[in-house]
Amino acid sequence: MEESEVKLVVEEINNYIQKELWFDFSVQQYTHDKLIITGGLSRSYPPMIELYFNEVFFILLHTDWNTDTSKTILTLLEGEEARTINLMFRVEIGNHLFRFTPEDCQNDFGCLVVARKISYKINELYTQ
């Protein structure tokens, strides 16, 4: 996936999530090289959005976390920060570094996902 495509998907995800006052996330499934993260107003309700990471290289994250939607929820890491993580974890070329920002964590902490592809689906229950 080209970086421009990834940036567009990340922007669309953030725009959707930031319409809400809060958002809770959970790791729904991790199988082979596919990671599914679901999110919504509560883990008790059907998820509002499903995030799909394919060809996953590396993950470092909580299984559940809350977010403050007044801040950026999902970031595509670039520049020196990405370079540092790339070197630390020997990330292969062609992967993208994503950071979720949990609500009650320090600003430099984040749930990291390193993958080649990202996509999402909004639950039809919430599109009407």
TrEMBL record:
It comes from the Bacteria. This is Uncharacterized protein. The lineage of its organism: Bacteria, Bacillati, Bacillota, Bacilli, Bacillales.
